[in-house]
């Protein structure tokens, strides 16, 4: 069943599942009273341990080889991952959630520009339209809180979309010897190490208060799976589209706060959320319709050919020959 799904749809489903697990993140950040450095130390430590265990279980003694296969991503992605975590936590503590969310909403736009300029990743016109609608919708959701908080927090929040965009775009650009992207989930533990080392240097190696321990335990339970799935999504989708799916965190996080804290969304928030759901749903339906039309006309699923190449270890050159033959 899974192998019959279109290649892009698999990427969207994987990334959406990760975003679903990531949606309580802002609630966890706001719900703890520990200092940012202590929070980041335990965040990096707990996430790093779980993600390293996953990587070792999957690769074993071949883990160093898998890390080297990531190429430039082995440097850029961990640093960007750590920077996004630090910026997200500090900004949420220093300014309003609305300011942080508005800045985060720029991630797909920034990722699209980085991919176009540095990696020649061209997005379809439909994708740019969806990005524009979703950015606008997510900004409406956060409009009620914009302007509150410090300028320092607003400045730090600007690093969140930049870091997310660098991570997703660089990860999606590493193709290696196969047409599907390189598995960059193996370098997430390095990102956690880059996250906790500064925290340790600034005195973050302290035991958290007892009341914060359950929240940290929940974080260690959900967030590793969330980041693992989101990073896996970059193997199937361009970085801009991974960042676009991550906008669902704005919607899901708001609904979670509504349910947990009882904060009723504003009318603008409901309109913005509706814009996000409508834009992404219509785009997905158009993709499925386009795929079915191509299949009915006899065109092969290039994404499936690429996947079969990975599974059967067919040389990449053969994929090019098959794709060229199909075009003829």
TrEMBL record:
Residues 11-141, 153-283 form the EamA domain. Keywords: Membrane, Transmembrane, Transmembrane helix. The keyword Transmembrane helix applies. It is a multi-pass membrane protein. The chain crosses the membrane at residues 12-29, 41-61, 73-91, 97-119, 126-144, 150-173, 185-207, 213-230, 242-261, 267-285. It is found in: Membrane. It holds the Pfam family EamA. GO terms for cellular component: membrane. Signal peptide: none annotated. Belongs to the EamA transporter family. This is DMT family transporter. The lineage of its organism: Bacteria, Pseudomonadati, Pseudomonadota, Gammaproteobacteria, Oceanospirillales.
């Amino acid at each position: 069943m899974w192998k019959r799904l279109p290649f892009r749809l698999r990427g969207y489903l994987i990334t959406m599942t990760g975003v679903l697990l990531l949606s309580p993140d802002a609630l966890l950040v706001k719900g703890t009273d520990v200092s940012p450095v202590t929070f980041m130390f335990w965040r990096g430590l707990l996430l790093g341990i779980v993600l390293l265990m996953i990587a070792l279980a999957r690769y074993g003694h071949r883990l160093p080889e898998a890390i080297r296969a990531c190429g430039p991503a082995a440097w850029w992605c961990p640093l960007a991952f750590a920077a996004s975590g630090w910026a997200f936590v500090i900004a949420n503590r220093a300014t309003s959630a609305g300011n942080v969310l508005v800045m985060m909403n720029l991630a797909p736009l920034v990722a699209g520009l980085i991919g176009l300029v540095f990696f020649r990743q061209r997005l379809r016109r439909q994708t740019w339209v969806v990005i524009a609608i979703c950015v606008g919708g997510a900004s409406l959701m956060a409009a009620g809180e914009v302007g509150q908080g410090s300028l320092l927090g607003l400045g730090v929040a600007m690093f969140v979309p930049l870091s997310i965009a660098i991570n997703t775009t660089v990860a999606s650009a590493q193709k290696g010897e196969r047409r599907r992207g390189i598995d960059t989930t193996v370098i997430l533990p390095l990102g956690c190490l880059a996250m906790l080392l500064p925290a340790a240097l600034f005195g973050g190696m302290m035991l958290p208060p007892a009341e914060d321990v359950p929240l940290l335990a929940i974080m260690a339970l959900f967030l590793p799976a969330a980041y693992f799935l989101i990073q896996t999504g970059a193997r199937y989708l361009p970085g801009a589209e991974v960042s676009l799916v991550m906008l669902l965190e704005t919607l899901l996080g708001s609904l979670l706060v509504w349910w947990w804290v009882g904060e009723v969304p504003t009318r603008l928030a409901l309109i913005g959320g509706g814009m996000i759901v409508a834009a992404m749903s219509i785009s997905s339906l158009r993709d499925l319709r386009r795929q079915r039309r191509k299949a009915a006309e006899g065109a092969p699923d290039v994404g499936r050919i690429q996947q079969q190449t990975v599974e059967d270890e067919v040389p990449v050159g053969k994929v090019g020959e098959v794709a060229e033959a199909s075009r003829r």
